Amino acid sequence: MATQLNSGVLEHLKKLEACAKELASEQVEAQQKQQPISDILAQTRKVSTLQLDQEDVISTVLKRKFESLQNILEAYHFTGISSEVKKPGSVFCFCISTAYEGTYLDSYYLDIQVQHPRKIIRHNIPVFIPLDQMAQTYLEKDLQRFMGVLNNDLNAYVSRRYQAEQLQECHAAYLTSQVQKNAAYNLLKFNYPIRCGDTEQDVQVKLVYDDLTRCLPSSVTLTCTGADAESVEEKLEGHRQLFEQKELHRAIDSLKLQKEVVSSCSLSAEHSSPSPLSQ
Q1: What's the pLDDT tens digit per position in 153-195?
Q2: DSSP secondary structure letters along 7-49
Q3: Helix (H) or strand (E) holding 50
Q4: Which end of the chain has fewer beta carbons closer than 10 Å to its terminal beta carbon, N or C?
Q5: Sheet holding 187-196, edge to edge
Q6: Within a 10 A sphere around the Cβ of 163, how many other Cβ atoms?
Q7: Predicted TM-score (pTM) above 0.70
């Protein structure tokens, strides 16, 4: 009886041991199956983190580019340059407002594709301004430099024009000829009278502005007609220095104060408007 009981217990223990081994085997297999899933989940997390990092980098780069462009536009505002978006993210309309000593003169406009490759879509810049050359040199590499160079050229042009207009409008009584000019106002000619003893002689003036970025002449030629032309050469040298160093209308103001130029009442009505001149 005892033998049968022991045999039954042993048999039962064997079954329990077999069940335990089988259960342990199943757990190991389950762990082995779960391991690749955890690896995949880990890889997925890494990819997601990488994508988020890349998105952060792209967002940061775009933000910096926008801030850089915004800073450029704000800097332009203080130099008379403004802009507005024509096509979000790609086309801006730039306005250059020119002035002379605080007096507004003209505005010029450019529609520019700011995305690379940059290009000028339309504009109203005068033909004698070397816009194409400026664009080839600066536009693609440095938009701010391009706008700055163009701004300088336009302001120099309107300054030369303003000076010639002031000469004609405010000092006509001290001229013996009409003011002759070309389109760029970088070549000007006119005459004014000076007193030599008891006689008056005409001084013929030719001003050349070789540098279109300047509002003062690079070359001043004064020629005096009459029998005593040689005797006034020293006087003309002083005049020449004034034209080289001062704006045109201010040079005449100085000559008037020094009583180096005399008023002429012989100007006819036709002298009141300038005539075109080819360089």
Answers
A1: 999 999 999 999 999 999 999 899 999 999 999 999 999 988 8
A2: HHHHHHHHHHHHHHHHHHHHHHHHHHHHHHHHHHHHHHHHHHH
A3: helix 2-77
A4: N
A5: 219-224, 199-208, 187-196, 180-181, 275-276
A6: 23
A7: no
